TrEMBL record:
UniProt-listed CDD domains: HTH_ARSR
Lineage: Bacteria, Pseudomonadati, Pseudomonadota, Alphaproteobacteria, Hyphomicrobiales
NCBIfam families associated with the record: HTH_metalloreg, repress_SdpR
Protein source organism: Bosea rubneri
Domain named HTH arsR-type: residues: 1-87
Protein name per its UniProtKB record: Autorepressor SdpR family transcription factor
Pfam families the record matches: HTH_5
Entry keyword Lipid metabolism: no
Keywords on record: DNA-binding, Transcription, Transcription regulation
Amino acid sequence: MSAVFKALSDPTRREILRLLREKDLTAGEIAARFELAKPTLSGHFAVLREANLIQSEKSGTTVTYHLNLSVLEEAMCLFLDHFGLVLESRSLPSRLQKDKP
């Protein structure tokens, strides 16, 4: 989970995730939304891939990125649980639900 929270700590990476929440995008489409050098964006993509928050698919010279929503959802549930914030059990993924007495 540390890699996930490290990835989420940067506003550029959070914006990339927000864009990918709307639809899958190519690296070029994402780059067009930022005034950053391509190597800088590549570094952001690497951090997001390392945290398994995004997945990439290469077709020829085009790389398309997809949001891995289940990892993001799990991180948010664990974050809320860590601070004792209660979610209804039905809203938690089954692997995160605690056994009730």
